[in-house]
């Protein structure tokens, strides 16, 4: 009797371990919005022109957004998350239309809270953020953000894979390369 109970418990533990190992990972693609337009200005201060608070994408940014949609078009993206800015929404729009996925606005000022939400939501996610928020979110997910994103650097694509409480990070480049 004791042996059969021990065997049953061992089998249950092995089954649970195999099921956990086969569990689908949460995959999070993270990018900064594509290039913003330089035209909309809000004044001419002594240090030069200032961008509008919510500028659209430049033609180069629109091209990068189309490239992102092409790259992730067959990746099985199930959710697209964007900060509440025109440039992030415009960057995600081509993929949203291609994949038939609605974009959801997230609070880009709460990376820890949003990371917890992503960890608990199965699927493949695209997150569109900013130079100062995207690396913070990668880190909040347990990934490696690398060096800070430079002001004019738009070609960074993070892939964070979350499985069994662990994060694996890949940092890729796409589109026109950033030159220092």
Which helices and strands appear, and what pairs or packs with what?
Elements: H1 2-22, E1 26-32, H2 59-72, E2 79-82, H3 86-99, E3 103-105, H4 111-119, E4 124-129, H5 134-140, E5 156-163, E6 166-173
Helix pairs in contact: 2-3, 4-5
Fraction of residues in β-strands: 15-25%
CATH level 1 name: Alpha Beta
> Might you state the CATH topology name?
Rossmann fold
Low-confidence stretches: 4-21, 39-47
Q: What's the gyration radius in Å?
A: 20 Å
Number of domains: 1
Query: What share of the residues lie within helices?
Result: 25-40%
Order of helices and strands: HEHEHEHEHEE
Distance N to C terminus = 71 Å
CATH superfamily: Phosphoglycerate mutase-like
Biggest β-sheet: strands ordered side by side in the sheet: 3-2-4-1-5-6
| Biggest sheet architecture | 6 strands, mixed
Please give the number of β-strands: 6
CATH architecture, by name, is 3-Layer(aba) Sandwich
